[in-house]
Design brief:
This protein is of the alpha+beta class and 75 residues long. It has one helix and four strands. It has a domain of 30 residues. It starts with 9 loop residues before the first helix and ends in a 15-residue tail after the last strand. The relative contact order is 0.09.
């Protein structure tokens, strides 16, 4: 069985793991599908609720975003 002659430095092994992690994250981002929402037409990730209208597969699952009401203080 092969035995290493010297100990592998911690920085070397962490660098190797870092490159693996970067490629994995890039592959995940490349495989992510972006589709149009059937209700409002906004771009969204597939198989997720729309962040604009809050609907998923025709059902309301998130509350719609409401504009904050501004109140004026009279002096």
């Amino acid at each position: 069985m092969a035995v290493p002659k010297k100990k592998t430095a911690r920085s070397y092994s962490k660098t190797r793991y870092t490159h693996y992690e970067m490629e994995t994250q890039k592959r995940i981002l490349d495989e992510t599908n972006v589709v149009k929402c059937t209700e409002c037409g906004a771009p969204k990730r597939s198989h997720t609720a729309c962040s604009e209208c809050g609907k998923y597969r025709g059902r309301q699952v998130l509350q719609e975003k409401k504009a904050p009401e501004t109140t004026r203080v009279q002096a």
